[in-house]
Amino acid sequence: MRFNGLLPLAKKLASAPLESAKTFKVYEQLYRLKANELPQEQRLDQANTICDLNACVVMMIAAGITRIEAMKAAVSTGQAYESAAAGGRDRAWCFRRNAGAQFEQAMIDWCQLPGNGVVQFKFFPVKGVHTFAVERVPLTDVRDQNSKGTNLPRFRVYQAYESVYRLSDFLRTAGDENSYLKLNLDSYFEMIKPLKGRKFQYKSTKLQAQEKRQSDIARGVTSFDEVTRNLGGGRALIWSEFEQYVLTPLKEMLNGELPSADYSALTGVPENPHYRSMSINKLLVLMCDRVDPGEFAKNYEALPSQNVSPFVDFPQN
User: Fold this and answer.
1) Hey, which residues does 258 pair with through a beta bridge?
2) 138 torsion bin: left (phi>0), alpha (psi -120 to 50), beta (else)
3) Could you read off the pLDDT of 160-196 as tens digits, one per residue?
4) Which of 81, 111, 136, 305 could lock onto 92 through a cystine, CB 3.0 to 4.6 A?
5) Phi and psi at residue 51, in whole multiples of 5°?
6) Is residue 130 classed as helix, strand or coil in its secondary structure?
7) Which three-class secondary structure state does DSSP give residue 50?
8) Does position 281 have pLDDT exceeding 70, yes or no?
């Protein structure tokens, strides 16, 4: 029998426009900020695209508020963090430029651990900040055993991308993913201004500009379809898929540069024509070796009683 881990509660979270996280400061701020601009449903949808909010809530459902807050506080100072928890360790790092090998080894060690675990990545490429969470799920199907009969873990990705798609879109539970996505992509491409002298500037006539925009939106839908096919929909990735689609792109961004097409395949946002590649100088990792599935429901219900920020901050130096 396959074990669903965090997936049922993540779907509940995604379907309830973050009702369980309304006390998060950023949610309240966004909700009030848009009070005179958007109807309630659209305000909820926009809050549900915030990558930090979704990743942090998933982490707190898995490990509880106290453990995640301790890691957030430590890593924001630039110091590595380690504490015994749930029969394993909670660890947090800020990996710096060219530390791809150390990051990769830490992840390989985590991936090979028994039981359930959870990890959050946050990075700052040349344009914008992004973060998402990954769950390690032990499965009991005989097809997930190695030659020695040991059960091998699988991995589930939980992510949203601010102002582009919601967690419910990524998990393919919304039912209106592509129509909602097209509306957001129209605004997304509006923010990408042509650079002076570049060949990809929008053409001058109104019709040509409209055709270019529709082409961009179609390209964005294709990018989203690719990431949900590879990483979304609650798929339980085998190790080789997780390595290919998640670990290797993060390592390449940390060590040098990741082609924009590969960044798009990781995040689901369309390629930005201004950038041929993406690189990062800092990669935050919050890692729980072990989490207890018996605590997930209780952790979920505890969220509205707390007033904590979902943001994990980068060190200043």
Assistant:
1) 278
2) beta
3) 988 788 888 899 887 766 667 776 776 666 655 544 4
4) 81
5) -65, -40
6) strand
7) coil
8) yes
Rounded Cα gap, residues 105 and 243, in angstroms: 12
List pLDDT tens digits, range 30-81.
666 555 666 666 666 677 788 988 899 899 999 999 999 999 999 888 888 9
The secondary structure of 237-256 as a DSSP string is: B-HHHHIIIIIHHHHHHHHS
Tokens of 56: 């942090």
Evaluate the CA torsion angle 148, 150, 151, 157 in order and state its sign: negative
Q: Answer for the pair 268, 125: CB distance below 8 angstroms, yes or no.
A: no
Q: How far apart are CA 40 and CA 37, in angstroms?
A: 10
> Which residues contact residue 34 at a Cβ distance below 8 angstroms, ignoring those fewer than 6 apart?
42, 43, 46
The one-letter amino acid code at 254 reads L
Pair type for strands 130-138 and 117-123: antiparallel
The H or E element spanning position 14 is helix 7-15
Q: Would you place residue 198 in the very low, low, confident or very high pLDDT band (cuts 50, 70, 90)?
A: very low
CB 311 within 8 A of CB 26: yes
Structure tokens at 93: 């790092």
d(CA 269, CA 78): 29
Cα angle 68, 228, 92 (rounded to 5 degrees) comes to: 20
- 73 three-state secondary structure: helix
Rounded Cα–Cα distance for residues 148 and 188 (Å): 50
Q: Are 46 and 30 in contact (CB under 8 A)?
A: yes
- Angle (CA) 154-229-62 rounded to 5° is 40
By residue count, the chain amounts to 317
